Amino acid sequence: MLAVSIKDIKQFMREMFVGELFDNFLLVKANINHDINYEIDGHLNSDFFDSEEKENMLKDSYKQWSQLKSLITTMIKGNKLPLNFNIVLTTSKKSLEILFNSSSHDFTIDQVEGLFINIIYKNEELLITSGSSYSVFSMDKSLDNAFENAIKRLLASKSIDFEE
User: Fold this and answer.
1) Cα dist. 61→48, 54, 110, 140 in Å?
2) How many domains does the chain have?
3) DSSP 30-96
4) How do residues 30-54 score in pLDDT, each as one tens digit?
5) Which of 88, 103, 139, 145 is deepest in the core (most CB within 10 A)?
6) Which pTM value belongs to this model?
């Protein structure tokens, strides 16, 4: 599991909410404690869509971060930062397939339930952790390591300074 502390929170927030830092990820959930508490469940509600839209929906069951970040930005915007927030993102099926095929491991793609990024802001500190979920038990951490390295490369590509 990766755990990094972000050194420049303002820069990170700008890249996350204004830039494109996590635009390829999907929102699993968000909890924001501001002047009121917000809880967002990123699961798509299939009952909302008509049959044609359901056929055209991606295999992913969550809403894309790029489609929700302006809503969340509105919730946290103001003179004060939130007291705290926790945002959980996951890879899209397409991104998972790319990462899966570019690393060696003992899994089949069907055994990977998800690769997750947890973004935790609390006590004026920002921490990013990674997580994974598999349908089988394994001591193989190859895919987890590849995902952790991908997260570090993503942060570095935006010149976001972090400490492990």
Assistant:
1) 13, 11, 15, 26
2) 1
3) EEEESSSEEEEE-B--GGGS-HHHHHHS-S--BEEHHHHHHHHHHHH-SSS--SEEEEEEEE-HHHH
4) 999 988 999 999 988 878 877 776 6
5) 88
6) 0.91
